[in-house]
Every structure is written in structure tokens, then in C-alpha cells.
TrEMBL record, chain A:
One of the record's GO molecular function terms: ATP binding
Highest taxon of the lineage: Bacteria
Xref: InterPro entries: AAA+_ATPase, ABC_transporter-like_ATP-bd, ABC_transporter-like_CS, ABC_transporter_ATP-bind, P-loop_NTPase
Family: Belongs to the ABC transporter superfamily.
Name of this chain's protein: ABC transporter ATP-binding protein
Automatic annotation (TrEMBL), chain B:
Membrane topology term: Multi-pass membrane protein
Transmembrane segments: 61-82, 89-108, 120-142, 172-195, 215-239, 260-281, 326-344, 351-371, 377-397, 435-457, 477-499
Superkingdom of source: Bacteria
Gene3D superfamilies: MetI-like (1.10.3720.10)
Main location class: membrane
PANTHER family, per database record: ABC TRANSPORTER PERMEASE PROTEIN HI_0355-RELATED, ALKANE SULFONATE ABC TRANSPORTER-RELATED, MEMBRANE SUBUNIT
Family: Belongs to the binding-protein-dependent transport system permease family.
Compartments where found: Cell membrane
InterPro entries xrefs: MetI-like, MetI-like_sf
Protein name: ABC transporter permease subunit
Domain ABC transmembrane type-1, first and last residues per copy: 316-500
Keyword annotations: Cell membrane, Membrane, Transmembrane, Transmembrane helix, Transport
One matching Pfam family: BPD_transp_1
Length: 247, 513
């Protein structure tokens, strides 16, 4: 599988009088994970939704490889995990996860494996109403992974997940998409999570979003909890915090 | 455990029957009340006749149920595909729903001639609007996120409709169907009141006019039982198919609050023009006999004669005068009891299932009993109208009262506020939208009840005017009555809606959507 680059070329989007994104440009390299961090309401979700083809930019252009986002979507090569898990209430956890494969017209052969991986074993037959917010979010992540997408968009995927599980998922999940060579765009509020998961972190200013810092995370070593304690990564963290505060 | 429970219930039912029997035996009013043994006697003596009539009415109700619900599904699908048509179609659907069935009955009889056409059509008319509202609520219950999810995988509107919208509105469809079952039966019976040859409605009319107490009681109870069986069966089917029943208030969607008065007026005129055009065109298209099938022009020509107009206006005033006390009594008793019950939550929990079940009984089928008991004057009419409105209002208000979110209750509790303060400051404002929704839906219900009672028993008002004009072949008067009733119902509905907007703007502005 060859994943595409994602090219945002001076995209601008406003909702009525609210300018959400203004002239945002970036090339997100194929097979890399890029994190977007920035204050609430600065336009991160809007950027992600434009990459997914859910919003059309007013000006500028988003290209995935050499295709428009909705063409990639029609191939079933795109998946997104939303800020709100949005599971279908009438489907069980496993059927909700399988939906990702059904909609992308891919085989649903990894349901059990993914349920284990996100720590939902024993809940496969439960309805979403019987799960906690964090558990629902984990099911939604599994749903986005099952179709083996070329482009994976994660909008605050672990926001409602408890701290311990979150740390474990931060370490356990990335090898999955790294091995597949997936191009990942991640929105998060956690600097540690951004560093742990990404090859590159883009810090955005408050609305309308513009890039205030762009840091490559090229520290060596396995990406586990110890990774955050290495001096190179701590330098990155300091740089990120000062970019976020000095906006 | 189930066995023990069942035995208890049977024992209780048996005790109740004995009590009833004893009370009738001791009472002096034996002319008005039948005992269980009288009813059993009447039913067994006339078994073959009643069985045939039951099958006939149930069959008409069944076909009306199918047609009416199919129409509701088609209408809601149209509104989904063409969102701009929604407002217009809903207003039109409401206007048609506002015409009391007992008024459309004679007209349909004239148009169809003999046969089951009017009964089936009335049954369909009785159900389509509530199912339509339930379906619209269901189709709107789809979260934008689910639609986004479909688009992220490149799936179009068709896949969204099949996989998400249809499935998400299924529970609401079943709620609509469940409420439809007794309503369809009611529609079929009213169709039979207005000149059929067979059916429970015909027998009821005969029993009423002949003052046969046992027959009236037996037929009323049997009709209610059949209607409730349909309600129960569809509820069971819905729980099997969906697994849960959503709690929905069948409120017609409100118009936009920013609607200017001249736009509303324009819209109203457009709808009236459309109705008149459809009226004229269907008559011409089917080339209906001018003697029975009056055109808008005929009604106009008839009503500009002062004498005719005065007769109609006098009858209308009589009808509205009988409807108003019952309407107000039903609404205030329903809302008041809901508020009282909420102060004793245990009691509310225990009564809600009964209220929900009783809401489903087509009260009109028991109207003959109420008229027997309370007389043919204003008291009898008021009771029928009030009872007709009471149960839906009670259920809606109880549901509305429980809409107050848990956090708000906790907030009040954390300030040590008592139950009464909480009721006044949080729960009643939360109940207002549900109350007004039922006040609006009660307008056509009240008019239906009052005209039916007039037709059956009291010998006054528009109901009886229609009953006599259809037998004296004064078809101009019949059509004028129907047009006037539709106009009055729509105007009263609009009045309640305007009152609702004004009050909600002050007391619950956040709930104006
Ligand atoms: N559908 C919408 N309609 C109107 N305003 C919107 C819509 N979506 C986002 N916005 C506005 O655009 C801005 C950016 O939103 P969003 O991209 O969701 O921010 P973030 O995800 O960074 O918190 C916010 O001010 C938000 O209110
Ligand atoms: Mg966001």
C-alpha cells in the first residue's frame, strides 16, 4: 500500500462571520503522523474535516496524493475518528467496529483483534448505551482502524479515555498504523501525546488558525513511556509549550 | 413467579367484576348501567351478529391503517427528499387532519356511494397525521455525525437513508403505528356512524337511538377492547423489532419564531388557495355529480344568502360553546394532575402506564356511555370532550415534567430547595412545551368529540345540522358545514399556537427552537 501525501494549499474557511481557518498551508508527508495542537476553537477540527472532504474550502485546495479528498473517500481509503464517538446505538460494539469495514467495502477480518487491542474484550456484544464515554471512544478508534485506511484522521481520539488506558493506547496503537504506512493526522490537546505519536507537530495560533511552530520529532528510540524522558524529546516539549503560551 | 402474578391479576379482575355486579344490583339507576352479567348475556345472545360486525369494522380499520400509514411514510420521505416542501406539506396535512372525521364522513359517503370506501378512508385520515409527526421526529433524531461518518467512507445519500435514517426512525415509526391502531378503529367506527350498512358503528348507532342500555354498554366495551388489543399487539411487535420504545411527544413542529406576520399570512392564503383548487379540480377531474359534489363556487353562492349563513353560524356557535368548557376542563385537569402526581413520584410511576394505556382507548367509542350517564345536555358533552383530551394531556405533561435534566434537579437540591419550589421554578417551565403541544393537538380532538356527540345524541349544533342535511339532501349546507368546521379548527389551532409562542417567549425562551 502506498499512502499519499496530504497537501493543504492556502486553505481558508469561514462559517458566517466566523473565520475558522485562514490561508493554512502544509504538506503532510506520506506514511508520517502529524499532530495539530492549538487552543480550543482555533480551527483544528475544521482543517481535519476539510482533509476528509466534509467541508469544502472557500479558497485554496486540499489534495490527497493527486486526488480530491472525496475521491479518496469513495475508494474507501479514508477513515476518521470524530471528537464525538458517534456509534450507531442499535449496533453492538463489534457490529459498530465492523461497520468501518462494511462502509469501506473491505473485509471485516480483524474485529476481535481490534477489540482486544483497544481493551474492550468482554464488551463485544454490548450496545453503546451500556459503555462509558471512554469505552465508546475506543470503539470508534477501532472502527477507524479496521478498514486499513491509507489516510487516518483522528480528532482528539483519546479525549474521554482515562489517563492510564490513554497512555497504554498511545504506546500500543501507533505500531499498527506505522507498519501499514498510513498517513495520519492527529488533533490533540496533550503535548506528551503529540510527541509520543507523531513525526511532526504543528502548533496553531488561536482563531483563525495560522502556524506558529512546526517541529520535527526525530528523536531516536522506541516510542514508549521512557521516550518522553529522553533529553531530545524534553527539548521538543519545552519548545512546544513556549510556542503554545507565546501565541 | 409469573404464574403467581397472573393468578393475582385474575383474582383482582374477578373481584372487580363482582363489585361492579353488586353495585349495579344495589343502584337505583339500573336503566343506565349494565352489570357484567347483562353484558355477557347480551353478547352471547347476539354472538353471531356481533362477531360479524366486529370482523367488518376491524377489516375496514385494518385497510385504513395500511393506507394511512403508507401515506405518512410517503409524505415524510417526500419532505426528506425535498426539504423545501416540508412546511407547506405539513400545513396542508394539518388542515386535512383538522376536519372532524364526522364531518368528512357524510361527504365521503356522498362521493363513494354505498360500500366500505368512507370507513376505510376515515380510518386512514384518523392515523396519517400522528404517524407523520412521529416519523418526522425520528428522521430528525439522526445525528449529523452519523451522516459525516457515511461521507468519510464516500457513501452517498441513498446509503445514508438505508443504513442510518431508516433504521434510526424505526422506533419512532413503531410508536406512530401503535397509536394508529386504536385511531384507525375509531375512524372506521365513525365512518359507520355516517351511513354504513354493517359494522359495530351501525349497531352502536342503533343501540343509542333505541336507548338500549345493555347493547350500548356491550358495544362500547367491545370496541374499546378490540382497539386496545391492536394497541397492545403493535407495542409488543415494536418491542420485539426494536428492543425499546422512545419517549416522544407528538408535537407538531413549530413555525420559525422569526416568521413575520405578513409571511405567515401569505403562506396561509397560499394554502387556502391550494385547498380550494384541489377541491375544485378533483371534482372536475372525476366529473362528480354536481347534485352531491358541491364545488367551492356552490358553497360560496349558498353562503352569501343571509338565511343560510345565519343557520350555519348559529349552529357553529352552539358547537363551539359546547366544546370550549370540555376543552378547558380536559387540559387543566390533565396538566394539574400531572403536576400533582410529580410531587408524589411513586404515585406517578404507578399511574403512568394506566394513563398511557387509557390515552389509546378511542374515547369516542365510549361516548355513548358517557352520554347515557351524564345526559344529553351540556354536562354530557363537556364530559366527553374533557375525557377525550384529558389522557393525552396527562401523559404529555408527565413526560414533559420529567424532561428536567438530572443536573438541574441536583442544583436545586444543593441549594436546599423544596419539591414545590423545584416544581414551580424548574419543572413547570420544562413542561410548558409539552402542555402546549397537547393543547394544539386537542383542538381537532375536541371538535371531533363534540360533533360526534351532537351527531349521536344531543340533537344540537353543527353535528346534527350535518346529520339532517345529509338525509334531506341539502348538500350545499353539508359542504358548507365541513368547510366552516375546517376553517374554525385551523383558526383555533393557530390561535393556540400564537398563545404558545407568546407565553413560551416569556417563560421558557430557551425552548423556542
Ligand atoms: N458548522 C459550524 N458552524 C458555525 N461555526 C462553526 C462550525 N464549525 C466550527 N465553527 C466555528 O469555527 C471555529 C473553529 O472550530 P473547530 O474547527 O471546531 O475548532 P477546534 O477543533 O480547534 O476546537 C470555532 O469558532 C467554531 O465555533
Ligand atoms: Mg475540535
Amino acid at each position: 500500500m502506498i499512502s499519499p501525501d496530504i497537501i493543504c494549499d492556502a486553505v481558508t474557511k469561514s462559517f458566517g462571520a466566523t473565520q475558522a481557518v485562514s490561508e493554512f498551508s502544509a504538506t503532510l508527508k506520506a506514511g508520517h503522523t502529524t499532530a495539530l495542537v492549538g487552543p480550543s476553537g482555533c480551527g483544528k477540527s475544521t482543517i481535519l474535516r476539510m482533509i476528509a472532504g466534509l467541508e469544502t474550502p472557500e479558497r485554496g485546495e486540499v489534495l490527497v496524493g493527486d486526488e480530491a479528498p472525496d475521491a479518496v473517500a469513495r475508494r474507501g481509503a479514508l477513515a476518521m475518528s470524530f471528537q464525538d464517538p458517534s456509534l450507531l446505538p442499535w449496533r453492538s460494539v463489534s457490529a459498530n467496529i465492523a461497520l468501518g469495514a462494511e462502509l469501506a467495502r473491505k473485509p471485516a477480518d480483524q474485529v476481535d483483534h481490534l477489540i482486544d487491542l483497544v481493551g474492550l474484550s468482554g464488551f463485544a456484544d454490548h450496545r453503546p448505551a451500556a459503555l462509558s464515554g471512554g469505552m465508546r471512544q475506543r470503539a470508534a478508534i477501532a472502527r477507524s482502524l479496521i478498514s486499513k485506511p491509507e489516510v487516518l484522521l483522528l480528532d482528539e481520539p483519546f479525549g474521554a479515555v482515562d489517563a492510564i488506558t490513554r497512555r497504554r493506547l498511545n504506546v500500543d496503537l501507533p505500531p499498527l498504523w506505522r507498519a501499514r504506512g498510513t498517513t495520519v493526522v492527529l488533533v490533540t490537546h496533550s503535548v506528551e501525546e503529540a510527541l509520543l505519536l507523531s513525526d511532526r507537530v504543528i502548533v496553531l495560533s488561536s482563531r483563525p488558525a495560522s502556524v506558529v511552530a512546526d517541529i520535527a520529532v526525530d528523536a531516536p528510540g522506541p516510542r514508549d513511556s521512557a521516550f518522553l524522558d529522553t533529553p531530545a524529546v524534553q527539548d521538543h516539549a519545552r519548545a512546544l509549550y513556549s510556542a503554545l503560551e507565546g501565541r | 413467579m409469573i404464574g403467581v402474578n397472573l393468578w393475582r391479576k385474575l383474582l383482582a379482575a374477578g373481584a372487580l367484576l363482582l363489585l361492579w355486579e353488586g353495585a349495579v344490583a344495589l343502584s337505583s339507576d339500573a336503566v343506565l348501567i349494565s352489570s357484567p352479567s347483562d353484558i355477557a348475556g347480551y353478547l352471547s345472545e347476539n354472538f353471531a351478529l356481533i362477531a360479524r360486525a366486529s370482523v367488518e369494522t376491524s377489516r375496514n380499520a385494518f385497510w385504513g391503517f395500511l393506507w394511512g400509514n403508507a401515506a405518512a411514510i410517503v409524505l415524510s420521505a417526500t419532505m426528506l427528499v425535498l426539504p423545501r416542501s416540508e412546511r407547506f406539506l405539513l400545513a396542508l396535512a394539518l388542515l386535512v387532519f383538522c376536519v372532524p372525521l364526522i364531518a368528512s364522513g357524510p361527504i365521503l359517503r356522498v362521493l363513494y356511494g354505498p360500500g366500505t370506501g368512507p370507513q376505510v378512508t376515515l380510518a386512514a385520515l384518523a392515523v396519517y397525521y400522528t404517524t407523520l409527526l412521529a416519523l418526522l421526529v425520528g428522521l430528525r433524531a439522526v445525528s449529523q455525525n452519523w451522516i459525516d461518518l457515511m461521507r468519510v467512507y464516500g457513501r452517498g445519500p441513498l446509503a445514508t437513508l438505508m443504513r442510518v435514517r431508516a433504521r434510526a426512525s424505526l422506533p419512532y415509526l413503531f410508536v406512530g403505528l401503535q397509536i394508529s391502531a386504536p385511531a384507525a378503529f375509531l375512524g372506521a367506527m365513525i365512518g359507520e356512524f355516517t351511513g354504513a350498512e354493517r359494522g359495530l358503528g351501525v349497531l352502536t348507532l342503533r343501540a343509542m337511538r333505541g336507548l338500549e342500555t345493555d347493547a350500548t354498554w356491550s358495544l362500547a366495551l367491545l370496541s374499546a377492547a378490540i382497539a386496545m388489543t391492536g394497541y397492545g399487539a403493535l407495542g409488543w411487535l415494536g418491542r420485539r423489532a426494536v428492543g425499546y420504545a422512545p419517549e416522544i411527544l407528538l408535537s407538531a413542529p413549530r413555525q420559525d419564531a422569526d416568521q413575520t406576520w405578513w409571511r405567515s399570512l401569505g403562506q396561509t392564503l397560499l394554502i387556502v388557495a391550494c385547498v380550494v383548487a384541489v377541491w375544485q379540480l378533483t371534482m372536475d377531474a372525476f366529473d362528480l355529480n354536481r347534485f352531491f359534489a358541491k364545488r367551492p363556487g356552490d358553497v360560496w353562492g349558498f353562503l352569501i344568502v343571509a338565511e343560510n349563513r345565519d343557520t350555519l353560524v348559529a349552529a357553529l356557535a352552539q358547537t363551539l360553546g359546547s366544546a370550549l368548557p370540555g376543552y378547558l376542563a380536559g387540559l387543566s385537569l390533565g396538566a394539574g394532575l400531572a403536576a400533582l402526581l410529580i410531587l408524589w413520584p411513586g404515585l406517578a410511576q404507578a399511574t403512568l402506564p394506566f394513563a398511557v394505556a387509557l390515552r389509546a382507548i378511542p374515547i369516542i367509542t365510549t361516548a355513548p356511555l358517557l352520554v347515557l350517564g351524564f345526559g344529553r345536555g351540556l354536562a354530557g358533552t363537556t364530559v366527553v370532550v374533557a375525557v377525550m383530551i384529558f389522557f393525552p394531556t396527562l401523559v404529555a405533561c408527565q413526560q414533559g415534567l420529567r424532561q428536567t435534566p438530572g443536573q438541574v434537579a441536583d442544583l436545586f437540591r444543593s441549594y436546599g430547595a423544596g419539591r414545590f419550589v423545584f416544581l414551580c421554578k424548574a419543572q413547570i417551565p420544562a413542561m410548558l412545551p409539552a402542555f402546549f403541544a397537547s393543547a394544539r393537538m386537542a383542538v381537532p380532538a375536541a371538535l371531533l368529540a363534540v360533533t360526534t356527540v351532537e351527531w349521536l345524541a344531543t340533537g344540537k349544533g353543527v353535528g346534527v345540522l350535518m346529520a339532517t342535511t345529509s338525509s334531506t339532501s341539502n348538500y350545499n349546507m353539508l359542504w358548507s358545514c365541513v368547510a366552516a368546521l375546517a376553517g374554525v379548527a385551523a383558526a383555533a389551532y393557530a390561535l393556540v399556537a400564537a398563545l404558545e409562542r407568546a407565553i413560551l417567549r416569556v417563560y421558557a425562551s430557551e425552548q423556542l427552537t
